[in-house]
Amino acid sequence: MPAPSSDLSSRTASSVLGHVNLMMDTFIANANAEDLRAIVRGMLATSPPASASGLASLARRRLVQTGATSVPSSEGLFISDASRSLSTPPTEKLRQVLSRVRALYGAGLGFASLKILAVIVNAAEGIKWTEGSELETLLAAIDVDISQAVQSCKEEVESGRATDMSFARAAVNELRVAVKENRMVVVSGEGGYLFEQGENALDYWKI
Predict the structure, then answer these.
(1) So which domain of life are we looking at (predicted)?
(2) Do 117 and 160 belong to one domain?
(3) Residue 19's pLDDT is what?
(4) Residue 24 banded pLDDT, cuts 50, 70, 90
């Protein structure tokens, strides 16, 4: 008898994990996301290092199976307010895509995340923002995402999981070009630059 939940994703997850105790499966199917995050963090903190590796492996498999590595359209990532020549607050689509990017590089799919980050960076070309705005904060976070994704890529190579080096090099070069082109045309309210940290991370790593 399945756990009392109509959540299709929970049943799919169960098929990936194999047998799960009925009561625990019921809990997983009905617990809220914040509780599950706290429990997983606690479990990893008190478990042998191999547990984290096992979880990362399952996470990568799940992300691939659900199409999280697919490259999204750039449409709707940023919306410009022509009347002020400034951008409106970040769109919901951008937030969702960034969440997917972070899941990918966090699970060890760094090169897949670079492909999506390149779309975001290209879409941000020429964008303007006001100092202290929500958009400025998010753009700074994307800069950090780029350097974090590069670190994930390094670990992917060192672990031997990066088997398609042609794809890997293409992903790095695509994002590197996008960042350089973006920084050439971007003008902020204070004359600052976008993605400086990310550009440095990309330039100082040769693959």
Answers:
(1) Eukaryota
(2) yes
(3) 59
(4) confident
Query: Do 191 and 99 belong together in one domain?
Result: yes
> Does 91 lie in the same domain as 51?
no
> Helix 134-158 crosses helix 92-107 at what angle (to 10 degrees)?
20
What DSSP letter does each residue of 72-140 carry, written as one string? Answer: PPSTTS--EETTTTEEPSPPHHHHHHHHHHHHHHHHT-HHHHHHHHHHHHHHTTT----TT-HHHHHHH
| Helix 92-107, helix 110-123: angle, nearest 10 | 160
Within a domain: residue 188?
Answer: yes
Side chain identity at residue 173, one-letter code = N
What confidence score (pLDDT) does residue 12 get?
46
Give the residue numbers spanning the domain of 182: 80-203
Q: Are both 18 and 84 inside the same structural domain?
A: no
Cβ–Cβ < 8 Å for 130, 149 = no
Q: What is the Cα–Cα distance from 177 to 183, expressed in whole angstroms?
A: 10
Per the structure block, which two tokens stand in for 139? 């753009």
Q: Which phi and psi angles does 21 have, rounded to 5°?
A: -50, 135
- Pairing assessment for the beta strands 80-81 and 86-87 based on DSSP bridges: antiparallel
Report yes or no on 3 lying in a domain. no
pTM, two decimals, is 0.83
46 and 105 co-located in one domain: no
